[in-house]
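FYI - complex with adenine, inputs then prediction.
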Amino acid sequence: MTKLGIIGAMEQEVETLLEALREQTSWQKAGSTFYEGILEELPVAIVQCGVGKVNAAVCAQILCDHCHVTHLVNTGIAGSLCAELDIGDLVVSRDAMYHDFDCMKFGYPFGKVPGMDTVAFPADQSLMEAAYAAAEQVNPGHARIGRVASGDQFVASKAVKEQIIARTQGICTEMEGAAIAQTAYRNRLPFVILRAISDKADDSAQMDYPTFERIAAHRCAQVTRSLARQLKAAGQK
Ligand code: ADE
């Protein structure tokens, strides 16, 4: 039976989802609160992981070990890395990689974690399709599929943005997705990342982020609920 693990980085987004969560129970682990219940008729576990790669990976592993989730989705906001993605638009991951992982001195390609057999962790095809359908439902004509570039850095300068694009070919940047992707990959769990654009990851990012964070967080929650409905419907076929 499908049980969806939902990892959000932001309070507003998780709060919106919790308002819709039925038969709610909660418990604490490693400083985070894990909520379990039924969202859109689908069993889910929800956690607000906090910011950055380590927080994200810790929570993803707990969802695997203690909640026995079968699928993982990471939702939240992101900075745009391409001209076609404007504030409020939606991104669904094709794959995810780090923009701040560099063992090139030892002959590894940029972004490659030694011991992993891939630079970019691929999202699950059918989750990706379901997430894209959900995104199109919420914001028609404004959803794109592509690479998510993650790192422990709020990107707010044109120069850094250009470097990340050149190194990763990502279409958006955020601070958790690839860590969740790597955790899912190691546990052989299907995952997808779903992000709403809150800023352009350039010199205007610091200004735009607080203005658009709320709207983007709300949009993510809507798409996540739609994704839960799609997964429920797919499970019934
Ligand atoms: N999340 C939202 N905007 C971001 C940015 N510009 N850099 C990193 N993470 C983000």
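The chain has one domain: 4-235. The chain has a mean pLDDT of 94.
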